[in-house]
């Protein structure tokens, strides 16, 4: 079984007159199921750029992104976004006039993955798992706290039965205690449900909880484990 996600010699740059300003330089890495990864880097280091590419929201200048050994260009970006990867954003990006359970159901309605027959019950169960009880699940999401909205967004990301969860500064708008609760969910998804969870952040508190920490510095991935042995 190939790794769930492999990046090979990824390059990304912005053209600045005659010069290329590299954001990512020849980045290669393998990501496995069952692990919680944190990509740590200062503001402007290219974290969102990297995540956008592995989420198929942007295209690298060169290099390959392989999902289960298949180039995501071959899978098709739209297919990949709908059926292979779940995305969690800093600002939640829920549909504000819908309830929590409706937000989850929308995601379930656009995936082509095979889901349990009773979608609504599945959605409530998932929300329960992330700490949203039925009363909150039936509330329009703009009447939920930021931490609660992020829990809903995580439920939405996994509701399509994907094995790859990508998150960009998921606790950037939350206090420390709420952040800790969100991190517990990511850890549980990796360790109890065998998902591959990749979070980009500049929080060293989150990094301390990760199975593997990758530092993004000057466009290069630095990892104490995978490369230095
Ligand atoms: N359209 C653009 N043209 C030129 N440079 C850009 C453009 N978009 C982003 N950049 C630059 O690319 C670099 C990486 O940006 P990116 O958003 O990936 O950083 P980040 O690590 O996510 O930062 P933050 O922690 O602040 O979210 C930054 O220096 C940014 O200014
Ligand atoms: Mg960013």
Describe this entry's structure for a reader:
The protein has a domain of 105 residues: Rossmann fold. The mean pLDDT is 95. The chain contains nine helices and ten strands. The strands form two sheets. A six-stranded mixed β-sheet has the order 6-7-8-3-9-10, with helices on both faces. A four-stranded antiparallel β-sheet has the order 2-1-4-5. It is an alpha/beta fold and 229 residues long. Helix 4 packs across helix 5 and helix 5 crosses helix 7. The site of magnesium ion has 3 residues, from helix 1.
Write the layout of secondary structure elements.
Blueprint: E1 5-16, E2 19-31, E3 36-40, H1 47-54, E4 62-67, E5 70-71, H2 72-75, H3 77-83, E6 85-88, H4 100-110, H5 119-129, H6 134-137, H7 146-159, E7 164-168, H8 176-193, E8 196-201, H9 204-207, E9 212-217, E10 220-222
Helix pairs in contact: 4-5, 4-7, 5-7, 7-8
Brief overview:
With 229 residues, the chain is an alpha/beta fold.
Bin the strand percentage: 25-35%
How many strands? 10
The N- and C-terminal alpha carbons lie at a distance of 23 Å
Bound molecules: adenosine-5'-triphosphate, magnesium ion
Q: What about the largest sheet?
A: 6 strands, mixed
Second CATH tier, the architecture of the domain at 1-78 and 193-219: 3-Layer(aba) Sandwich
Helix content: 25-40%
Mean pLDDT: 95
Q: Which stretches are low in confidence, meaning pLDDT under 50 for 5 or more residues running?
A: none
Radius of gyration: 17 Å
Derived from helix and strand composition plus strand pairing, the structural class reads alpha/beta
The H-and-E topology, N to C, reads as EEEHEEHHEHHHHEHEHEE
The geometry reads as globular
Any idea of the CATH class of the domain at 1-78 and 193-219? Alpha Beta
> What is the topology, as strand order, of the major beta sheet?
6-7-8-3-9-10
CATH topology of the domain at 1-78 and 193-219: Rossmann fold
Q: How many helices in DSSP terms? A: 9
The name of the CATH superfamily of the domain at 1-78 and 193-219 reads P-loop containing nucleotide triphosphate hydrolases
């Amino acid at each position: 079984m190939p790794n769930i996600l492999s990046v090979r010699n990824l390059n990304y740059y912005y053209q600045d007159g005659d010069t290329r300003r590299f954001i990512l330089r020849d980045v290669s890495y393998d990501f496995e199921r069952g692990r919680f990864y944190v990509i740590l880097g200062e503001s402007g280091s290219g974290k969102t750029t990297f995540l956008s590419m592995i989420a198929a929201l942007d295209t690298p200048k060169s290099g390959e992104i392989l999902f289960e050994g298949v180039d995501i260009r071959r899978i098709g970006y739209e297919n990949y976004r709908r059926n292979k990867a779940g995305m969690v954003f800093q600002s939640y990006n829920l549909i504000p006039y819908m309830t929590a359970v409706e937000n989850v159901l929308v995601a379930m309605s656009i995936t082509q993955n095979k889901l349990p027959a009773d979608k609504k019950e599945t959605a409530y169960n998932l929300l329960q798992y992330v700490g949203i009880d039925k009363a909150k699940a039936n509330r329009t999401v703009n009447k939920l706290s930021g931490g609660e909205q992020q829990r809903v967004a995580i439920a939405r990301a996994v509701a399509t039965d994907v094995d790859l969860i990508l998150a960009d500064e998921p606790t950037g708008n939350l206090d420390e205690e709420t952040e800790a609760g969100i991190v517990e969910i990511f850890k549980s998804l990796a360790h109890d449900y065998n998902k591959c969870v990749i979070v980009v952040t500049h929080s060293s508190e989150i990094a301390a909880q990760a199975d593997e920490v990758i530092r993004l510095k000057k466009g290069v991935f630095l990892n104490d484990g995978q490369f230095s042995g």
